[in-house]
Amino acid sequence: MSPETFVDLFRSALWLVTVLVSAVIFPSLAVGLLVSIFQAATSINEQTLSFLPRLLVTLGALAVGAHWGFGMLIDYFHELVGQIPQVIG
User: What are the TM regions of this chain, as residue ranges (predicted)?
Assistant: First the structure.
C-alpha cells in the first residue's frame, strides 16, 4: 500500500467521522446556548435545566439522522471494499 492511498483512506474516514459527529453535536450546542441565555436572563442557576433539553435534542438528532448516517457509513464501506485491489496491489 502506498502512503498516498493510506492518507486518502484516513482523510476520508476522518471526514466521515467529523460529519457524523457534527450532525449530532451542533443541535445540542445550539440548544445549550439558548438555555444558557435563558438562565442568564432569569438568574436561574439550575444545572439540570440545561441537561434535559440538550439530552432530548441529541436523542432527537440521532433519531432523525440515523438513517442518513448509516447510509453514509454503508457508502464508505462499499468504497473501502471497492479499493481493496488498489490497496493490495
Answer: 12-39, 51-70
Distance from C-alpha of 57 to C-alpha of 85, rounded to nearest angstrom: 42
CA distance 83 to 77: 10
pLDDT digits (tens, 9 = 90+) for 76-87: 999 999 988 877
pLDDT of residue 85: 85
Residue type, 14: L
The sign of the CA dihedral 37, 38, 44, 48 is negative
Q: How many domains does the structure of the chain reveal? A: 1
pTM more than 0.85:
no
Q: Three-class SS of residue 49?
A: helix
d(CA 74, CA 76): 5
Q: Do residues 88 and 77 make contact, with C-beta atoms less than 8 angstroms apart?
A: no
Range of the domain at 23: 13-88
Alpha helices in 1-89 (DSSP H): 3-42, 47-82, 84-88
